[in-house]
Amino acid sequence: MAFAAPVSVLRQDVKAPQFALKDLNGRIVRLSDYKGKVVLINFWATWCPPCRAEMPDLVRLQREHGKEGLQIIGITYPPERRARVRRFARGLKVNYPIILGTREIKARFSSDETLPLTIVINRDGKVIEIISGILLREEFDEKIKPLLMKDIEGEMSNAKSNH
Amino acid sequence: MRSRITNLVVSGVLVLTLGVITAAAFTKTVTIKVEGMKCPKCSASVSKALKATEGVEDAEVSAEKGVAVIKYDDQKLTETKLREVINSTGFKAKEEPGQ
Predict the structure, then answer these.
(1) Three-class HEC string of B44-87
(2) N or C: which end of chain B has fewer CB within 10 A?
(3) Which residue in the set A54, A114, A136 is minimally distant from B44, CB to CB?
(4) Residue B37 to residue A141: CA distance in whole angstroms
(5) What's residue A8's pLDDT?
(6) Does the pLDDT at position A49 exceed 70?
(7) Is the peptide bond before A116 cis (omega within 30 degrees of 0)?
(8) pLDDT score, position A6
(9) Which of A6-10, A124-128, A150-154, B9-13 has the lowest mean pLDDT?
(10) Mean of pLDDT values over A117-134
């Protein structure tokens, strides 16, 4: 496990703390692997009904917006048994990395104990929003879609200026 | 002139009063039992989803009591829809007898 400079309670619009943690398949997942993407770090638990309810939506969002640069990372919180989490993730055909979290990593992102909790990180690696509770469709459209659009707009203006 | 102003003021007050009475007539309060709200950390999603629903004026959710008290506009929403919103958060809105 590796962390960047400690940030005890994360404020919005600051650089997200870096991490390198193993996913369910033993692969190291680093936040830096997703540089340039819009990252949603979703803290969840298998025993939390709203977390379970929102996961099919997260799977759909990853499928529909992955090409636009959306990357969801699920982190279990509080700590849970690998076998239980793996069984659950397989059942839902989760299409994004799931990491077994610790209290330490959760504390580095937020002191909000609500579950689920989603940290929204923009393409510059800054925390833009902390969404407490289930991620509503309206919230995705209002807060996350514009972040995905930003790069498309940027690419278009770059393409224009190159011509 | 003065009586004309008085008439206008009286009409204005009347319209406002009628508006308030009509709005109040459409507002209903319902208490729905919610099963499975064992963790207070998770129940925040229920009030969040309810408050984001058009027609809901207020929603108080108690994980301890296992209930959601919802004030809503019955011209825009039905109790069935409110139960669907609760169920969409992973909990179970208990059906009352006769529903």
Answers:
(1) HHHHHHHHCCCCEEEEEEECCCCEEEEEEECCCCCHHHHHHHHH
(2) N
(3) A114
(4) 28
(5) 39
(6) yes
(7) yes
(8) 34
(9) A6-10
(10) 96
A-side interface with B, Cβ within 8 Å? 47-54, 113-116, 132-134, 136, 138
Is pLDDT at A111 greater than 80 in this prediction?
yes
Question: Across the interface, which of A54, A132, A138 has its CB nearest the CB of B44?
Answer: A132
- Please, which pLDDT band fits residue A5 given cuts at 50, 70 and 90? very low
* Residue type, position A125, single letter: G
- C-alpha B95/C-alpha B89 separation (Å) is 16
Q: What distance in Å separates the CA atoms of residue B92 and residue B88, rounded to the nearest whole number? A: 9
Token pair belonging to A28:
């190291």
DSSP state of A35: T
For residue A111, how many other CB atoms are within 10 A of its CB?
9
| Average pLDDT, integer, range A25-30 | 93
**Which burial class, exposed, middle or buried, applies to B79 when counting CB atoms under 10 A from its CB (0-12, 13-18, 19+)?**
middle
The shortest CB-CB distance from B41 to any of A53, A114, A138 is to A114
The residue of A103, A136, A140 whose CB has the most chain B CBs within 10 angstroms, and thus the best one to mutate to test that interface, is A136
Per-residue CA distances from B50 to A61, B68, B82 (Å): 22, 9, 7
| B67 vs B9, residue with greater confidence | B67
Q: Do A50 and B89 touch (CB under 8 A)?
A: yes
| Closest CA relative to residue A136, chosen from B57, B72, B46 | B46
Contacts of A114 in chain B (CB under 8 A): 41-42, 44
**Tokens read off for B98:** 């006769």
